[in-house]
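Incident log, entry 3
Record: Aquaporin NIP1-1-like (171 residues)
Problem: checksum mismatch between cached and fresh output.
Input:
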Amino acid sequence: MQLQSSIVSGLNQVPAYVVAQVLGSTLASGTLRLLFDGKPEHFFGTIPAGSNLQSLVLEFIISFYLMFVISGVATDNRAIGELAGLAVGATVLLNVLIAGPISGASMNPARTLGPAFIANRFEGIWVYMVGPICGTVSGAWAYNIIRFTNKPLREITRSGSFLKSLNFTKN
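Fresh output:
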């Protein structure tokens, strides 16, 4: 019952969080447009450089990876919390390097919506709504499936490493 009430409480906060994200993204994009003369070639948003399908698949995959890593390092008490920022930052960097040239590597619908509102450019906007949302939900779901175990961390790492099972001292 405790878990159910905390889930309902968390879901009640989602609409305000979404509004805050989109409002922040819109205000930031508006500020950039004012600072840099608002010329059409200065579009700070994301639009597919490849096909919509390529961008959709890439946004799904990179959002999946990002949420999987976040779930692992920021929510699991078995992870080293001090390294969470490094792990998440490295994941974002790799995602941008891989998907940036094709999809823009949005990973967040609000990051796409704000600039689209300011510039009135909505080409392929559905890609950035569907891909990241489905990717993050799938990433969290996948992590939760493998997360739940009764084994302590030292037992998981002891049995999980094939290097430890090799015995190099034998002749």
